[in-house]
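Suppose you are handed only these lines of text.
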Amino acid sequence: MACASGSVPTQQNVLVEDLLAVHPVAAARRYQPADRGELVAAVMQAAGGRGLRPLGSNWSLSDTGVAPDVIDTDALSRHLSAPFPNPGQALPPERLRGGGDFLRQACSADASLRGRYFVHVEAGIKLRHLLADLAGCGLSLPTMGDGAGQSLAGAISTGTHGGDLRVPPLVEWVRAVHLVSATGREIWVTAGDSAFSAAALVTQLPDWCPDARFISDDDTFAAVRLGAGRMGAVYALVLEVVEQYTLIESNFEYRWPELGVQLAVSRLGADGVATGVFDAPLRDLDAGFFRTEVLRRTYFPAIAHEAKFIYERGPERWPNVPAYFDAHPDVYARLLADLKLGGLADDLRGGPVMPLHHVNIAISLAEPWRCWVRRRWQRAPPVRMHEVAPDADDALIAAVKANKTNPPGVVDALKERLELGPIVNFLGWATHDPRKPRLDWYLDQEIAHIAAQHQAIGATSGETLFLVLHRIATDSVLEAGEDVARAVSEVIGGGFAKLARAGPASGGPHANMLDAHDYGLDGAQCGNSGEFHFDAAGGAYLAFIGDAIRLARQQDGNGLVFGYIGIRFTPAASALLAMQKYPLTASVEVATARSRVDDVYAGFWSALHDAARARQGIPHWGQQFRHTAGELEALYGARLRRWRAALADVCHGAPEVFSTAFSRDKGLEPLGAGGATDDDAIDIFLAGLAAGGG
Ligand SMILES: Cc1cc2nc3c(=O)[nH]c(=O)nc-3n(C[C@H](O)[C@H](O)[C@H](O)COP(=O)(O)OP(=O)(O)OC[C@H]3O[C@@H](n4cnc5c(N)ncnc54)[C@H](O)[C@@H]3O)c2cc1C
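From them, the structure of the protein bound to flavin-adenine dinucleotide can be written out as follows.
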């Protein structure tokens, strides 16, 4: 008998919106469980209904989380056992539910776990809250995506990854899954040889349901971890974490045609041997990679108010470090001081040589010859924090944040930027230029009109900003495309503007290196983003990048797509539906701005998905997703069939509960047995009634 609470708070007929406004849906019911029993009750009330999905942050751009009934997992965000071992401070009591000692007991019994660290945490926790919890305990996530707004289960259920070259994605760090299956029966799933599978220990967990099932099986574990929401509602996870570590980061601009050629011959072998772009070790700032890259961008300006060498952001000025700098070491020493890098240089001096840990490349689609590379190196000893917190917002971004859903509220700030810009530095026009009246028309009327159009349909100020810039850039009188493209590239490059950053991997808001997301903009944006995964040892990912650039050049006949291509590399994952199939997987993300008033890039996106298909790119489960069931079968083959067989077992008796239009369309349905019997259906119906469902 399932262990459900008598009821679960439920909202009826609510609009459920995803972060980038790709798939808003009117949900018939949104359940809001606050504990395990209520989560079970939610699943049982929905059983036999219209199709159900648990939701984390609803950041996913694919329809994998879209369902008529949804479970909001926000309140399922506490630890169920104290992190173990804990090299830092104890978790504050309010972060722990039930005070469980499970991890200590499980780890003490198994010598193979010595020196490793674990958390047992509810699945709805946001990664940013987990980062803060972990930092207090002297721990960190081993890896994650670029932002930490996702929930733990949402990130894991879609194969979310970052750009860590040698650390497999987060889904590979899961050690046990506590699942509420479609019938409401709970299942504790682990790998076959797991230290966390001992029933005698697990059944001692507070609030444990005696009816729960145990599965210790590699295939089921590999399937359930990346379940895309179809396997059931994950209540909690045992996750392996690591001791707190330090990340050192550098950001430099390059010319994509040159970097692309280098990438084509760069390799990172399974033995760790790195060549080309992947071969960039760092010991300190005094010599080697960092010094070289800085000095290749250092020059003596002909006109300057102070006669000295300066470092300038941008692509390299010199192919190699000019010999002059070797002969005059004082120049570089003074440069480090000018760049306020003296403290970080001191902290790194005498430290270990660090292999390149992380690479993240962004190409501007508006000016595809420009790209930026973020590199990170990892070490255990701490350094003083350097540029960890974001810079203050400029007036326009501040206006967008203050007026997320009030587009007219950004009009003045936008006009001010454009009014100031044309004469001084933006469009570079004199006031008598015939284009000036056209710009005045935008300033006096059209910007306010576009803002009003957005307001009328409930669109955001970010969308307004985008459409105004798009209209100005493509205006045949203004001929301002190149200037706007440059300004857009500067915004993209702005994310890579800090020459160096350093600090702890985990931590609270603005006090950790892993989370670069600007939460202040959430709710102000709208966009498209798709990501496709390739074998980094082959050429297909570079060819796909070429496709994306070519398609962008064809846009509107003038090549203006405001967006970027992001390139990251990760090792393989063993989860059956993980996109990271290759020893080194290259992921290519394409992201563009979007306005719901005028979807100007619709044609670009449809051609881009076709190009990804033609190059055998594997789509990200949590990004925009247009592949068909047949195409997925061709990409995943036996892995997909094994996943579907595991699904048949896990959802046995109630295959329809977590079945949605997405899962049916993509072939994420049980293989073989698993259909509901009449008896099962009646049981579920009665149990649902008992749990308070209607
Ligand atoms: C701004 C932004 C930045 C991003 N950055 C990256 C990145 O750097 N790297 C990357 O790989 N991806 C990235 N993504 C994609 C994102 O990580 C995935 O879409 C992820 O799934 C979102 O997590 P979520 O908590 O919002 O999940 P949701 O969107 O809420 O759900 C995603 C899927 O997980 C399922 N799910 C959620 N909770 C549970 C649960 N408790 N039990 C069972 N299933 C559950 C849902 O049913 C759904 O199928 C980004 C997306 C955005 C919008």
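What can we learn from it? The chain is about 30% helix and 20% strand. The longest strand covers residues 233-243.
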